[in-house]
Batch of 3 targets.
Target 1
Amino acid sequence: MSAVERDPEGSDEVVDESAGEAAGEPDDAAWAEVTPDAARRLLVAAVDAFAERGYHATTTRDIAGRAGMSPAALYIHYKTKEELLHRISRIGHDRALKIMRDAADSGGTAAERLDRAVRSFVGWHALRHTTARVVQYELDALGPEHRAEIIELRRGTDAAVREMISDGVRDGEFEVPDIPGTTLAVISLCIDVARWFKVGGARTPEEIGALYAGLVLRMVGAGEK
Amino acid sequence: MSAVERDPEGSDEVVDESAGEAAGEPDDAAWAEVTPDAARRLLVAAVDAFAERGYHATTTRDIAGRAGMSPAALYIHYKTKEELLHRISRIGHDRALKIMRDAADSGGTAAERLDRAVRSFVGWHALRHTTARVVQYELDALGPEHRAEIIELRRGTDAAVREMISDGVRDGEFEVPDIPGTTLAVISLCIDVARWFKVGGARTPEEIGALYAGLVLRMVGAGEK
DNA sequence: CCCGACACTGAGCAAGCGCTTAGCGTGCGG
DNA sequence: CCGCACGCTAAGCGCTTGCTCAGTGTCGGG
């Protein structure tokens, strides 16, 4: 049982998010695209610190300390603390959007695609809850132009979900009176996983993904499976 | 059409939350229990500031300024900034718990009670989204003992929802495979309203409450109405 | 007309913040 | 073996933070 659904006609090069460390916490491999090494260590430290205490409560000294460096080292790789948050937010949202789009563009019925979407989107929010928490809840700490950029990415996620629901309604699979409202509720439900998920909890990310996929299919009235 | 469901056998003295200002924002009347007047003005100012910028990004000077007072005046009525947050959090959670319990203890079928619960709980999170945002998302800013106290209140909310769902399953009204998981998802869905709700949005708090109540009834498989 | 109680202010303290700068060690091209 | 570019640190600058404290104006009782 693989964690994240492997879609048949997905992208060419897929970094399997669930491989490597099964525990979920030390998601260093997920930031492979960040170079050089010291910059990545700082970024991972920042993700942990931001998720734990929030952006404003985190000091640059704390971030540098977690990365095993002096406070000044941070400013060799990042112009400001806000730039660090932006890099994290950008990469995280790119990843979340890709997960959603891959599911939306995969084959099968609308119900199958929505199931895959919720399953992997929720799975990511649980497995990478540290990243997801920063990405989803520290948006207001970004500067205006950076925030606008991220909001644009979120619109893409929104559109993908609305698309799947609309398709299902068109094909008679779903029965939903308020498509924009239900879209909002579905995404809202998925995102909030990042707030409450704890590593020692009763459920694995995959289990939560499966549970939520079922609940969402009920929300859209997918009675006939 | 009244905003918050008026349960027939509810409590004796009910402060109608939706009365007074229809706009929703200046919820000064909701804090009538806070005295003296200056203490309440400071608390309302703190709610606005915390909701807007977050607890850590808010300065005591900002709070005092919004209340039209000097920074030092804050410390006549509150020992620390954290005590202010605690008072807000305590009152807000008391209110949220009461809303949930009133619905759970009201008469009728499990579906009717769950409908009322989600409708009013969500309605409150939308109408009082400023308060709700602080109450639901600034929990980590509280000191350990204050946080523990609030978490205890949340357990009560959780229990009320689980109770209603369990009753529905017992009576054959609902069909849910995972009661604790579904309980969690329902509360999660409701709480996240406070994150995304904006006053200028397309829907009123009552409309969102109605939409969400319908979605939740689908989640628990309440097919036979 | 005085007096103390009271709610509040102006000024400011110690600590901690984001960020800068001068300098140091190390490794690599010549 | 030199020299310099590079990644990093120690020290610290200017500012803001939560919070304090010596007053100040006001007001009711005697």
Note: Residues 144-170 of chain A form the longest helix (27 residues).
Target 2
Amino acid sequence: MKPIVDILEERVVSVIAEVTGEVAPGVVKPTQDAKFGDYQANGIMGLAKKLKQNSRQLAQQIVDKLDVSDMCAEPEIAGPGFINFRLKPEWLGFRLTEAIKDKERLGIDPLDNPPTTVIDFSGPNIAKQMHVGHLRSTVIGDVIARILEFWYGDAKKIIRQNHIGDWGLQMGMVIFSMHTKKWREENNITLDNLEHVYRHANELAKNNPGIAENFKQSTVNLQSGDEKETGYWKKACEVSLNACMEIYQQLGVKLTLEDVRGESFYADKLPSVISDLSVAKMLSESDGAQCVFMDGFKTKDGEPLPLIVQKSDGAYLYATTDLAAIRFRVNELRADRIIYVTDARQKLHFEMVFSCVRKAGWAGENVTLEHVPFGSVLGNDGRPFKTRSGENIKLRDLLDEAHQRARKIVEEKNPDLPADQKESIAQAVGIGAVKYADLSNNLVSDYIFDWDRMLAFDGNTAPYVQYSYARVDGIFKKGNIDLDNLIQGDFHIELNDPKELSLAKLLLRYGEVVETVARDLRPHLLTNYLFDLAQAYSGFFETCPVLKSPEPVKTYRLLLCYQTARVVEHGLGLLGIQAIEQM
RNA sequence: GCGCUCGUAGCUCAGUGGAUAGAGCAACGGAUUUCUAAUCCGUAGGUCGCAGGUCCGAAUCCUGCCGGGCGCGCCA
């Protein structure tokens, strides 16, 4: 089914062409205020200006030729030349029926010829616990992957890439310590212990050049394939990645070991990055380092800013790895589109890397390169979110706390539920709250992490949206409703009550929203929509009895409930948040 | 210094050229023998940081300024 805005837009555009001979957009949008109807076309004013015509008169000519009588009441001309559309209740009922019958896609068409898309997100480091700094990339990247998967209608077109930090000096530090027999005897190889040696090594290296030399040697040994070093390295990776997978599972993030392709994977592809840049005559030496200079990048002194691809000591940098990764993704993974979900602070870095691969011709015009930057997570004081002692907050602890806080609330609200159900509710609500809070903000802005607000049951929160689903389900349970039977065969829906109408209109906008979110990669539009929908449902729930209503109203309302539940469940699903039947 | 980014109600935020700028929280006032009140309805609350400009129309685009955050050669 084509979204309603698109249908109206097309018709307006075609009448504009018929009346004026111009190809001009209708600029059809949902109205901001119900008194202007449901949708409005704003394009006439601009066009009238361009044609030096009176905009109201032009609007009148358009309306005279415009046939939308199947879906709308007679369009109205308002103000300087707005055209307002009011959808007919019968047509809404018809559309809703269509959407209900489409069990897989809820009446939303998949994109034609979707591009093969690589999404690079999460990117934790080996030998370090995942902490709050990884939260947003992981959560947002997962949501983008889920949304594009649905929009594309073809999961094979989405390639998740977890570009983990598993190479370089940091690894040498850890491995060197593992190398000593003493350490192995005294420590199990756990992530906690790995992290401990990593930190310890970092401190040692700072004021002990001898030790630092050992770390470097360990790194060199690893990179040249030394068997023993490689064995320790593999062990460290295994332990770390298992811990990551636990976090992903707890978070409900669809990342697996198969999505991991870390820095080490590109290690043997780095020399050719340098040599190919050299052949392309893009390489220059500056202070002993191999650099690429591109137009438009300047240092603080106004000098050209280099993209350094090889340090003066011969070592490669993350820019080199990113360049190699793009080549691999374009050539081997056959990516048409590559999306990076990282901190906004890396914006300049990606601009330079993208500019470099364009210049080198490694990614042609048919490949889209996108950086989706996001802001930081702040504490209540507006400073970066840390523990009291200034440490990064471990994701494991954060998620446990979410679970515990939610558990406590469930205990208060619904003490009679069985313990295991309380647990699963606490899990869904706690994790959902954390993710929803993250996603409901505009990506680029920093956001304040506030337990009480995200776990509140009123306001734009996961629990509020989840509750609307639980309420629908309560009706089905109470009424012993057989849903398969309800939506079987031919049925139609009549809408009369204003609350039914506003709920139905919102339900039918789901496709528009999904498309916008997928196109612009802005998840908060989806949370806003789900909140609006949950509110509309609450309003309906208060004033429109379902089970107590006589037929056929009862069936119409049950169908509205059914579709509400589906859209909420589906929408939350795109956000990686669980809908729950009871709270 | 240059660049990026943000500045909207007391607080947290929507609103990426359209009509009288919207929610939620907090505040105040109402609704409950319920289909889950984990809710709903109402009231109040604004020089959209400031000043110019473009436009039929600007919170939105442009310029300048003020304020916050971030970035700016061998970390990632």
Note: The two ends of chain A are 34 Å apart (CA to CA).
Target 3
Amino acid sequence: MTSTGTRNGSPTLDEVAQLAGVSRATVSRVVNDSPRVSPEARLAVQAAVETLRYVPNRMARSLVTRRTDTIALVLSESNTQVFSDPFFASIVRGLSARLADTELNLVLLAARGAREQEKIGRYARQGHVDGVILMSLHSDDLLPDILAGTHLPLVLSGRPLDGRSIAYVDADNTGGAVAATELLLSLGRRRVATVTGPQDMVAGLDRYAGYRAAVERSGGRVDPDLIAAGDFTEAGGMRAMTELLSRAPDLDAVFVASDPMAVGAVQALRAAGRRVPDDVAVVGFDDAAVAATSDPPLTTVAQPLGEMTALMVELLLDQIESGERSVEARVCDTSLVRRASA
Amino acid sequence: MTSTGTRNGSPTLDEVAQLAGVSRATVSRVVNDSPRVSPEARLAVQAAVETLRYVPNRMARSLVTRRTDTIALVLSESNTQVFSDPFFASIVRGLSARLADTELNLVLLAARGAREQEKIGRYARQGHVDGVILMSLHSDDLLPDILAGTHLPLVLSGRPLDGRSIAYVDADNTGGAVAATELLLSLGRRRVATVTGPQDMVAGLDRYAGYRAAVERSGGRVDPDLIAAGDFTEAGGMRAMTELLSRAPDLDAVFVASDPMAVGAVQALRAAGRRVPDDVAVVGFDDAAVAATSDPPLTTVAQPLGEMTALMVELLLDQIESGERSVEARVCDTSLVRRASA
DNA sequence: GGACGTCGTGAGAACGCTCTCACGACCGGA
DNA sequence: TCCGGTCGTGAGAGCGTTCTCACGACGTCC
């Protein structure tokens, strides 16, 4: 056979050009819709593209343009529980909505353990993506280190734990926690406990710091018996609440550092015969969907997720556009959402 | 400046070759560890790679090898609830564990709506991935269609809804549902209800079919009042159970088509003052982590997830290896896990 | 009617890699 | 001594794009 059109692989630019009776360059122009093409040529090419079912080869294109038009959202999480966190789902939804009418593709990469994190680091460095958004960081994560060593545009979801200079977008976790705790205090509650998030994550740390600050500012003292650690899961919240109840049966309010944990806490409270909010007032964090539908509906701290995802994309796109790493930080205000639990 | 080593971008093979004093071909051989390299050359190259921090450009490599060494797991789901489904998390965990010690990378793609599905289809067709695993399919999904039109290796998680010939791996959903329902019947329960999954998903359909089959086989009749539709979420399970209770207050058992829904159902039951399993026996499906920890621990149907993910990878890899689409189907046996809820 | 833009087009050189092929160097067997 | 084989190596041709240039064919303006 001579060089027929029907080869094993997909059709190439050359084949389209041949069929359309123009040069490779013209086909390329049509495909990337450059204005400098005559209507006739354009039509001919479009027809050829159609009949050959031509799809440009991205590898070849990326090789010369040095762009892949895809960005990665990497979840640097050792266990798969992130997936069950509604916060994460919201971020993914927000990101892909934001990217929907751009040329950009979004890929999710999940990393558990050092080995996989290195694999992901390699993946990113090899030029598969134009930039990465890193979320759900723990203090022992390697990825910020690995990626900081490259020129890859990078944005963190959440303030970097070690003070490293990397662009990031975060909610004012501390401020939100202060507001939540102060609400509880202003309600006349005297024994305000807290279920914290993981203390190796910035959201866990900051929300705990906010709680402490509010308690101290009110003239109270921070009682260790009123503090229990959770892990942002419902089951963890239930466990922590049970523990709290046994250590401080007289508590009359609790600030829970995430809504899924708050749901678990309410269950534990109920199991112990306490009424919410009559006996114990509860405030959560995140304003997840579950907060509105749980029983009772949860008073919680809302983060402007839409704004945050939009900012992340903006920061990343700026870096990609300019070719320069930025270290811009954006912290978004939170707001208290009053419902029935406090 | 002449062609110095320090350019703006990353170092290339040529630069490494120059530094090591060998040819490009030799460097390539070392990088892909071909045996035909003398120890001295190998050492020199490795040193050069080290000092230049050389990372091969995947685009260039893929362009010639026609492989990307990455496979995609695509979630063709219109709402982001998949993420909260523990089944999904298990699949992701299983897949990446299975791929951990291979060269293969795993990327997750999430598609909501026709527009994004087309975008993902394009992404896949453009040569970003060597193969795709499709999960969580609904009947109106475009992706099987879009991808079936390509030569891309493809494996479905779950039997294709429209009988199309595509390789797939599935659990014996029908068999599992039959076993669950028969257990309930064998316990002497006379009014066995069901909370189904979405009826546009094969797991929802098959588990419902299994329930019907078991009821009919036992000589009973399928009572519409005993059937309510859920959506595989906890909230949906709660809603459906509440509905069931109002339509058929005399029910004494319920087969719930997923564990998260079963957890919701138990809550609804409890809210209505029914004891589990004394008043109403409950069987779930999936053997999710939550099944063991919920109160009471759930009797449920376990799927061999590890086996299933291994099979998906195997089927996909076979296709990639051979360059041929296969239509092989593998259905894995389920097993009943007896706990306290039935 | 000649000089000068603009406009559509094609030739051809990249991009960074892999892979075939040829070529010397070396070895063992006749 | 010569021949055939292996072994390490390098030259060079691709892979399918984009993009810079150069080049004719037009106007348009003096």
Note: Residues 12-14, 24-25, 28, 32, 56-65 of chain A lie near DNA strand D (CB under 10 Å from a C1').
